[in-house]
């Protein structure tokens, strides 16, 4: 695609020179119908996405949510709702499956993660549209999960290959999501049918829903067949959750029972040193991307983790998730 004559006439590109940086594609002149070309050359674009993990469409011509949805549909028409929710975001009323990016306070950094990797269903692709960049900070963080896996110590990878990661969640009105909002249901029978379908174990305690779901630490990418680090373990670890909730991470162990998320190596706790190794690997492989107004970032959700730096001022970024996937 990058060497084709039609592409060179209409676009120029910047190859990534740094760790986990995206491929950047930009029209040479104003007025290029980016969505048209993405639709016509969808297979070529997706091949590039598998190679680089993330592609930034600069000067994409996106000025409204409808434009963003058209770009998304041209790449991957199967957009999906945000289900099995864990973070606050709002949906746009007029354009289906367009959401605000995670609405954490600007003073909090959002750790690198793969969208919904804790869930029964996750999106293969995630698209971000920057409507308004922050006055300062707010960069999008990226990390290639293939490189993260290669950076992790062999003893940790070996242990993960022979055990499951268990996600424990508590749904209550006091902390995190209530079950009605998280699973988009209104009744307990409807909820329990959905939990059963998605492979959850659950119980009720003091009126609150407690769930357990077993997942994988590593997964095989459906197209490239590469092994990738694909889980939510360090993101749901008490040190991360306590920080996101505004608590001192050092006190996380003492308050773990009250947190809405916990993760374990099956029935045993994840050692702090293992979490530190995971964080270190993500940090070593990370790239900080300043997004400009009108940018559209397309990521392969299994190949590229994403996050957000702290920021000052207003920041408006919207997201679309596409192509549902699940473990067979």
UniProtKB/TrEMBL annotation:
It holds the Pfam family TauD. One of its GO terms (biological process) is antibiotic biosynthetic process. Transmembrane segments: none annotated. Its cofactor is Fe(2+). Signal peptide: none annotated. Keywords: Antibiotic biosynthesis, Dioxygenase, Oxidoreductase. Residues 39-320 form the TauD/TfdA-like domain. GO terms for molecular function: 2-oxoglutarate-dependent dioxygenase activity. PANTHER family: GAMMA-BUTYROBETAINE HYDROXYLASE-RELATED, TAUD_TFDA-LIKE DOMAIN-CONTAINING PROTEIN. This is Taurine catabolism dioxygenase TauD.
């Amino acid at each position: 695609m990058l060497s084709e004559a039609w592409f060179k006439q209409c676009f120029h590109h910047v190859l990534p020179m740094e760790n986990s940086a995206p491929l950047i594609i930009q029209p040479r002149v104003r007025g290029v119908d980016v969505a048209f070309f993405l639709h016509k050359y969808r297979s070529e674009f997706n091949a590039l996405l598998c190679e680089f993990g993330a592609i930034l469409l600069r000067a994409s011509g996106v000025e409204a949510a409808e434009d963003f949805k058209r770009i998304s549909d041209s790449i991957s028409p199967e957009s999906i709702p945000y289900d099995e929710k864990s973070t606050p975001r709002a949906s746009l009323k007029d354009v289906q499956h367009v959401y605000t990016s995670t609405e954490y306070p600007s003073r909090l950094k959002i750790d690198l993660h793969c969208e919904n990797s804790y869930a029964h269903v996750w999106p293969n692709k995630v698209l971000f549209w920057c409507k308004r960049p922050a006055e300062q900070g707010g960069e999008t963080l990226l990390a290639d999960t293939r490189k993260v896996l290669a950076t992790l110590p062999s003893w940790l990878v070996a242990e993960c290959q022979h055990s499951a990661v268990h996600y424990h969640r508590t749904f209550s009105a006091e902390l995190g999501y209530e079950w009605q909002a998280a699973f988009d249901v209104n009744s307990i029978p409807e909820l329990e049918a959905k939990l059963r379908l998605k492979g959850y174990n659950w119980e009720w305690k003091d009126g609150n829903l407690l769930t357990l779901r077993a997942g994988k630490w590593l997964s095989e990418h459906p197209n490239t067949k590469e092994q990738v680090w694909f889980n939510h373990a360090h993101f749901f670890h008490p040190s991360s959750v306590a920080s996101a909730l505004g608590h001192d991470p050092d006190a996380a162990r003492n308050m773990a029972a009250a947190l809405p998320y916990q993760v374990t190596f099956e029935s045993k706790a994840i050692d702090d040193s293992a979490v530190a190794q995971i964080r270190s690997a993500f940090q070593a492989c990370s790239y900080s991307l300043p997004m400009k107004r009108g940018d559209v970032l397309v990521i392969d959700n299994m190949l590229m983790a994403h996050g957000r730096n702290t920021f000052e001022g207003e920041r408006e970024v919207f997201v679309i998730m596409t192509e549902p996937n699940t473990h067979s």
